[in-house]
Amino acid sequence: MEYHLKTPLSAEDVKKLKLGDIVYLSGKIYTARDEAHMHILHEIKEGKKIPIELKGMAVYHCGPIVKKIKEGVWELVAAGPTTSSRMNSLEPEFIEKTGVRAIIGKGGMNKGVSDAMAKHGCVYLAFTGGAAILAAKGLNKVEGVYLEELGMPEAVWIMNAENFGPLVVGITAHGENMFVNLAEEIKKNEVEARKKLGI
After folding, report:
1. Is 120 known to be catalytic?
2. N or C terminus of the chain: which is more exposed, having fewer CB within 10 Å?
3. CA torsion sign, 193 to 109 to 117 to 16?
4. For residue 8, is the peptide bond before it cis, meaning its omega torsion is within 30 degrees of 0?
């Protein structure tokens, strides 16, 4: 199935998605990698209010290339996905504490993350690696930046998306994990092959 969804996403929006479904996203999307995850979680633990609303939103594992036109005005040049496994240890708590509904990245995430997604109603949407220019076309405007002091790739860039995709549902809001399933299938096939070869 193919879906065109807009942020903020509802629980109903994400719970209907199945493994392999195609999603195009419009609305506000935030970029965030490991340093941003750690900073935001620290601020929340300290009881501080962060200046962006993440509940129901989509977070994109991405270190974009952004060109500053003038003060407060930026142009997005490229926005390819970062390998999501970098955030495996941070994502379950991040999902719980922020209420995000979608994580976008490449390469998938582990069972700990899919368990958190099932518990809190979040999905993982995979974007093709190496397609940074295509990604930038779907993210048509930079609306602002949070944590700019972390540097361009680590800052949280606030993007306006218009039919950003295609994104493939790799982990559902019910905890089904395409990447864990694939790894288990590969392991099973290796064991069977070794048995046949007598090794």
Report:
1. no
2. C
3. negative
4. yes
**Which of the following is catalytic: 37, 42, 61, 120?**
37
d(CA 45, CA 67): 33
Identify the CA nearest to 160 among candidates 58, 54, 55: 58
Task: Report CA 132 to chain centroid distance, whole Å.
Answer: 15
Q: What is the pLDDT of residues 101-112, one digit of tens each?
A: 999 999 999 999
pTM: 0.88
Quick: pLDDT tens for 26-64. Answer: 999 999 999 999 999 999 999 999 999 999 999 999 999
By the 8 A CB rule, do 45 and 31 touch?
no
The CA distance from 180 to 14, in Å, is 20
Contact 82, 59 (CB under 8 A): no
Q: Are 169 and 124 in contact (CB under 8 A)?
A: yes
At 128 the pLDDT is 77
Q: Does domain 2-197 have CATH number 3.40.30.10?
A: no
Domain ranges of the chain: 2-197
Low-confidence ranges of the chain (pLDDT < 70): 129-135, 180-199
